[in-house]
Predict the 3D structure of the following.
Amino acid sequence: MANNVADSADVADTAVLGEGTKVWHLAQVREEAVIGSGGIIGRGAYIGTGVQMGKNCKVQNYALVYEPAKLGDGVFIGPGVILTNDTYPRAVNPDGSLKSADNWEAVGVTIKDGASIGARAVCVAPVTIGAWATVAAGTVVVKDVPDFALVAGVPARRLGWVGKAGIPLVQDGGQWTCPETGQKFIEENETLREAK
């Protein structure tokens, strides 16, 4: 399966697109970015220099994924999401001179396998979003999100747990159960793990 890159997309010669990747109109994929097989980069999305994305990731329209973000396999980035890379942004130095790339160190957002970031959410680096977690639309994430957590709000707070199907889990005695898949989970110390 060949890659499908729209004529109006700007993909750097040194970017690596995995097999079957689609890059839509007006998207920009910068130098040294790596997009795994089956990736989809939506209209007007920006993928920064050196960003690493696993296979089957979807970055929806007008999302901004700034370097040095790292996305696992199967990550969903909703429309208009922003993954920042500067904890203390300034346009100028204290003396009023314009800042350059040498005047700061980029820090990234890490998103683990299967996680979903809802439309217009902002993840303020450095943070890690756990595997299969869901960040609700419009949320501002300023601290790490555990695996399987459902977070919402400004700043983000955990509202519950979700399974791999993305559906909120139901408490079932001492365990949590996915109503769609029947998969069981155990909660311990504010974290969730799959039951054996």
Q: What stands out?
A: The chain has a mean pLDDT of 95. The two ends are 37 Å apart (CA to CA).
